[in-house]
From TrEMBL, chain A:
It comes from Croceivirga radicis. The keyword Transmembrane helix applies. Keywords: Membrane, Transmembrane, Transmembrane helix. This is Cytochrome oxidase maturation protein, cbb3-type. The chain crosses the membrane at residues 6-26. Pfam families: FixS. Signal peptide: none annotated.
Automatic annotation (TrEMBL), chain B:
One of its GO terms (biological process) is copper ion homeostasis. This is ATPase. Pfam families: ATPase-cat_bd (PF12156), E1-E2_ATPase (PF00122), Hydrolase (PF00702). The keyword ATP-binding does not apply. GO terms for cellular component: plasma membrane. It is found in: Cell membrane. It is a multi-pass membrane protein. Its main location: membrane. Belongs to the cation transport ATPase (P-type) (TC 3.A.3) family. Type IB subfamily.
Length: 64, 788
């Protein structure tokens, strides 16, 4: 019957871990700016394509 | 006329139309930025958002003060082993293209390691290698691509303020405890007397107790502190019954589980604290990129160029400027002190101070006032006062700038809180007395039950959610409020005081009228052709206004910078310019005019006036029926007649008001009224601070506006009556919510006074009342503002 104690301990430990992670994320400033990351996230993909298409041209210009 | 728009900034290409790379550009600046971007593989900038750019301004000397090591170091956030981190405020940041290009700055200069944009604050934090690029070069690079950073005295003096995350921690903690306690309390609600539950319920109860301790001690801390402060200053604010409720909930629950009387009310307790903090969080809506606390410091430069005795230039911080120092002021620089002009032609734009955008001409020996911006050539001035003692900056020594309007104002919630607390305490005492007489064993139960169920959670939530939602709605419509308290104060307003220049009039348009003898065709043609050659802003706008004539080659043309132009054609001589230039007379008052002298005869003058904003008459007529209106102007009374014609009803108007006069007038009014001040320039700053609510009108909300309670975007001025009306309606909504939550309280109390309050009833009733209040206020505020 002590299994319920074990389950309780595990469930609370998991909850505490998540709570701790939340505290860490607030501390590191994740909640300071909730807007910019949402825009930034969309850039990456589109950035890669134009680069790959004209790598040769770009290199010449960058080396100027 | 060409209707194509600039590929870079989106402005119509008019005067200077350039075509480069098959794209249209309005000026060389924009074209250069495009070249920089396209050669560095940053042309994607134009794909994210069309015409996102800004025309770069010529600013070669502007950041010279960053050469001063001491100043530069103070602006850096981090500086070690060749790596430096600096944060810049860039007002132009406005779209995703901006984020993208700024975060790819390392492509423009290899010295830049990373750049990260904080969009809501309009700031960019740049990490760079100091041996490859200096702070000044970095600022210049940003300026060159149209993202000119704004470096002001404010940033410089600001101590790195630590962000306050405590509310988020508390909210997280309360939510965490609430969730877990709910899980632990549910079994006992549904499985009463079940065998296994009987075995383990004590474990569950003590676990709930453990979860509740940090909630009471940490998350609900502010309510206890506020209640204590309230009682000490003999004020029964709304936090008194809340703190009492939390305390009683906790104690009663603890006693319940110790004595094994029941499972306690831990779920209601943690839920209550969680909902209350949620309301607080919602109310905290702020516009991070707008500053409501600005004083002269944000307008003034950090450093100026001082000339030493041997004419050596050096950059010094402005608070080091002493009386008698000789300073060099360049184009677009702001005068930091009151001074006397020594050398050069000063053309001072006082628009920051007065809202008047037409530059004033000064000659050597004239007095200049702090806050003006030099336009044109370099001038040399001698400081007559130190920075803090100058005419304008003295205003900030007034005590109004240190008072907090919000703390002196009793909110509706607090006003209700007082009566509510008294009522709850009376009911609790009466009910306890009754049960002491009937059945003393139940007396304590009833007493605590009343305090628990009457805990005004819903009342405390009504105002934050109503006003918080309204602030968001207002923000979307161009009316930015500093805090929710402002709406409550706005609802009480009965007197509106307007500044004239820059508030009722606009900087963007000028009205040009001709006074004098009519010009014949020959004269008009000569006038037009003469104006064609002049580059003075007044000539340009006059040129655009006049009818077109054939282009003639003038026999002679001479422009005296800052004075006027002389031209001859077919032996006819025309002189245009200031009155002193054309006729040798002193100019009348402070009007802006171009005088015309044709063959040594004064023909007349073109008067330039700031045009009144559109719809001003309608606005005043609709406001007039509900509010007392006053106009306070810093200008002379030249406009009185025009204003009287515009507003046929009697309207008190005061002219020649100095900043201090405006402040005192508002103070006078406040003895019998609640005053709303609407102004724009720094000269209104005192009045804005003194008034019950100070609204700054701004043509571009990203540009500076003086310290105030709210910023109203200029094109929304005509919506002012609806904003005021909605503030009043929101108060009605709050009152309705109070009634609603009182109904819940009555139901709860009927359980409590009869001694039948079970934890499960409290657990249902308390969240239900909170949630229904939140839903009601949100729906109601959206409903009343649907037409805005």
């Amino acid at each position: 019957m002590s299994v319920i104690y074990m389950l309780l301990t595990i469930s609370i430990c998991v909850a505490v871990v998540f709570f701790f992670v939340f505290i860490l994320s607030v501390k590191s400033g994740q909640y300071d700016d909730a807007y910019t990351p949402s825009v930034r996230m969309l850039f990456e993909d589109e950035l890669v394509t134009p680069k790959e298409n004209k790598t040769t041209n770009d290199k010449i210009e960058l080396n100027k | 006329m060409d209707t194509t728009n600039c590929y870079h900034c989106g402005d119509p290409c008019e005067k200077e139309h350039l075509v480069f790379d098959d794209k249209n550009f309005c000026c060389n600046g924009c074209k250069t930025v495009y070249e920089i971007f396209s050669t560095n593989n940053l042309a994607y900038y134009y794909e994210i958002q069309e015409s996102a750019g800004a025309t770069p301004k010529a600013t070669t000397n502007k950041f010279n003060f960053l050469d001063n090591e001491e100043i530069a170091t103070k602006l850096l956030e981090f500086n070690e082993e060749g790596v430096q981190v600096a944060q810049f405020l860039i007002p132009h940041i406005h779209c995703s293209s901006c984020i993208w290009v700024l975060e790819n700055l390392n492509k423009l200069n290899s010295g830049i390691t990373t750049a990260q944009v904080d969009f809501p604050k309009k700031k960019v934090r740049i990490t760079f290698k100091s041996n490859q690029i200096t702070l000044k070069e970095l600022a210049l690079l940003l300026a060159r691509i149209g993202y000119e950073p704004n470096i002001s005295l404010e940033d410089y003096q600001k101590k790195t303020d630590k962000k306050d995350h405590s509310l988020l921690y508390k909210l997280g903690l309360a939510g965490f405890a609430f969730g877990n306690v709910m899980l632990l309390s549910f079994p006992e609600y549904f499985e009463v007397g079940e065998f296994w539950l009987e075995q383990y319920k004590h474990t569950f109860r003590w676990l709930m107790f453990a979860f509740s301790i940090p909630v009471v001690l940490y998350a609900a801390k502010d309510y206890f502190i506020s209640a204590y402060k309230g009682i000490r200053s003999k004020l029964l604010n709304i936090d008194v019954p809340i703190a009492l409720g939390i305390l009683v909930l906790f104690l009663r629950s603890t006693v319940d589980i110790i004595m094994d009387w029941g499972s306690g009310f831990f779920d209601s307790l943690t839920g209550l604290v969680f909902f209350l903090l949620l309301g607080r969080y919602f109310q905290q809506k702020t516009y991070a990129y707008l500053s409501f606390e600005r004083d002269y410091k944000s307008y003034f430069p950090i450093a100026v160029t001082r000339l030493s005795a041997s004419d050596q230039e050096e950059n010094i911080e402005i608070h080091q400027v002493k009386k008698g120092d000789r300073l060099l002021i360049r184009n677009e620089e702001i005068l930091p002190v009151d001074a006397i002009l020594i050398k050069g032609k000063a053309q001072i734009d006082y628009s920051f101070v007065t809202g008047e955008s037409e530059a004033v001409l000064k000659q050597s020996g004239d007095r200049l006032f702090a806050g003006g911006k030099q336009i044109g050539a370099v001038i040399e001035i001698e400081a007559t006062k130190s920075v803090s003692q100058s005419y304008l900056t003295q205003l900030w020594s007034n005590a109004v700038f240190n008072t907090n309007k919000a703390s002196n104002f009793q909110t509706l919630t607090d006003a209700i809180g007082k009566r509510f607390t008294l009522a709850v305490l009376t009911i609790a005492t009466l009910a306890t007395a009754f049960w002491l007489w009937q059945d003393p064993t139940k007396a304590l139960n009833v007493f605590t039950a009343v305090l628990i169920i009457a805990c005004p959670c819903a009342i405390a939530l009504a105002a934050p959610f109503t006003l918080g939602n309204l602030i968001r709605i207002f923000g979307k419509k161009g009316f930015y409020l500093k805090d929710t308290n402002t709406i409550e104060r706005l609802a009480k307003i009965d007197t509106l005081v307007f500044d004239k220049t820059g508030t009722l009039t606009t900087h963007k348009e000028t009205e040009i009228t001709y006074h004098g003898m009519p010009l014949n065709d020959e004269e008009a043609a000569l006038l037009k052709n003469t104006l064609r050659g002049s580059n003075h802003p007044l000539s340009r706008s006059l040129y655009d206004l006049l009818a077109t004539y054939d282009i003639k080659t003038l026999d002679s043309f001479r422009e005296d910078t800052g004075k006027g132009v002389t031209a001859t054609y077919n032996n006819n001589t025309i002189k245009l310019g200031s009155a002193s230039y054309t006729d040798g007379r002193n100019p009348e008052s402070s009007e802006t005019a171009v005088h015309i002298n044709y063959n040594a005869r004064h023909k007349g003058k073109y008067l330039f006036k700031n045009a009144y904003r559109k719809g001003i008459e309608k606005l005043f007529t609709s406001l007039h029926s509900k509010y007392k209106l006053v106009i306070l102007s810093g200008d002379n009374d030249g406009e009185r007649e025009i204003l009287e014609k515009k507003f046929p009803f009697k309207l008190p108007m005061f002219f020649n008001q100095k900043p201090q006069d405006k402040l005192r007038y508002i103070e006078q009014c406040q003895k019998s009224a609640h005053v709303l001040m609407i102004g724009d320039g720094l000269n209104d700053a005192g009045a804005l601070a003194q008034s019950d609510v100070g609204i700054a009108i701004s043509d571009d909300i990203n540009v500076f506006s003086p310290a105030c309670d709210a910023i109203l975007s200029a094109e929304k001025l005509n919506a002012l009556p609806s904003f005021l009306g909605l503030s009043k309606k929101s108060i009605q909504i709050i009152k309705l919510s109070f009634v609603l939550s009182l109904c819940y309280n009555l139901i709860g109390l009927s359980f409590a006074v009869t001694g039948r309050l079970e934890p499960v009833i409290a657990a249902i009733l308390m969240p239900l009342s909170s949630i229904s209040i939140v839903v009601f206020t949100t729906v109601a505020t959206n409903f009343i503002s649907r037409k805005l």
